[in-house]
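Task: fold both queries, return tokens.
Query 1:
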Amino acid sequence: MHHSDRGSQYTAIRYAERLGEVGGVASVGTTGDSYDNALAETTIGLLKTELLDLRKPWRGLEGVEFALLGYIDWFNTRRIHHQIGGVPLAEFEATYYNEYNERRQLQLDGVH
């Protein structure tokens, strides 16, 4: 999935065709909604600050690709996120779904 604003480059026919060629799906924000793209913009800003700007100059695209894979793993599994209780995203998500499944099972068992 590729989420973007409604810029002309993202609504062009060639863009949609290429996205389809690689099995992608377009997702565009609502018109005039500045909050719609805030999460993507924040994430890209963090990526630039915490990775790309720190390791300049890059020698090639391959180095950037491998660094990005490592950053995404670190961001999701080891980076502490204070907005969610000082735990990594993966831990927060696992806890959420464990608690959700426990509540769901209690409901199915008829326990309130």
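Query 1 returned. Query 2:
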Amino acid sequence: MRIFRTIMIMICSVALAVAAISAMASEERDLGREILATNDGWASFATGTTGGSLADPSQVYTVTNRQELIAALNNGVYPPPSSSPSNTPKIIYVGGTIDANVDDNNEPLACEDYYRDDYTLEAFLAAYDPAVWGRDEAPSGPLEDARIASRNAQQDRVRIRVGSNTTIVGLDKQVTIRGAWLDIRGSSTANRTNIIIRNITFEDTYDCFPAWDPTDGDLGAWNALYDSISLRNSDHVWIDHNTFLDRETADSTLPDYFGVLYQVHDGLLDITNASDFVTVSWNRFVNHDKVMLIGSSDGASADRGKLRVTLHHNLFENLGQRAARVRFGQVHIYNNYYQIGNASNYVYSWGVGIESAIYAENNFFWVNPSTGITPDQFIERLNGTAIHESGTLLNAPSQSGHQAIDVLAAYNAVNDPDLSGAVGWAPTLFLEIEDTQDVLPAVQSGAGPFNWD
């Protein structure tokens, strides 16, 4: 009897252990099925943002190259049957590194592989050198046409269209999408909606064929296309725990042509053309010039009442400008960490554009004192009239502790006309807003991709 009792106890113990393991397994995290939390910024408005969390098993994909990614966005079909991606709920798990500048055999393509109609960079530079062409008008003629044809050839490779009801997540913190432009684009009559992109490093989105405009600024400028992610006529989008940066094509590696930087980059994450209800959280934006444009132009009247965006717990590190640059939208910017270590490329952080209503609170700035950058430079007036700013802290190595600063007052002290602090609204959709002194460690340790599997 004693032996029987012992055996039964052992059996029960094993059963309990198995049950515990099963319960733990059932609670394992699945980033693909996660949805945006209630009240987590503007993307939680009304229906919230659920992405492809309800996808049928037949619409769950794991992809490791460009062709597989595009197929997953189009019901498993490659090449896509049309230019419009699938809106069927889908979950796409990304593994490894996906390069967009590859052929259909996943062999790498260099800029020269896109050359069309006798285009070469050397010929273009010779034809449109201001000493030859002048500075009064933009390039035209056969070589400019060839540049556009070459640009279109690259665009056909790097532009990856994303449909509604989609979740795209990286399987671990090393996942990288390189050289791609994720184009989330609806129309004036039908938005793309309900999209989640998480846990991916977006690296080196570059334009081999930037346009030369000799009339842009005092010396002219090279203007590139392609953002790592762009939103046009889209709503309920959650961009979370990603990293955006330039590595092999960093501005510091690029040459000067015609006396100015040969700029092959545009934005990292642009939100334009009446897009709405977007949350951008826990991302890292690193070593780039133009970061985030919210609102496409001063004349885009369709943007009025739209462009409602929340930015929280993001790292903005060694950037030039547009973190963010806002037109029209009600944009809540809270608990972000701005690290400014380079004076040579810094322009501003918050761009106050036409009819914009930025509500910035409890953000942390670190400025290398050798830059000479002062708090009044954090704001740039770009035809706007108001910004709410409160709870900002500044820290530099020469300081002991954190210094509370009034950025708006600092701006108004050295600029005319003044900006108002009354923006006509106050945020209601947000998670707990941390004390500003806690933002630096929270963002340093928590922003960017992570291992979840």
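Both queries returned. Flag for query 2: The domain at 37-446 is CATH 2.160.20.10 (Pectate Lyase C-like).
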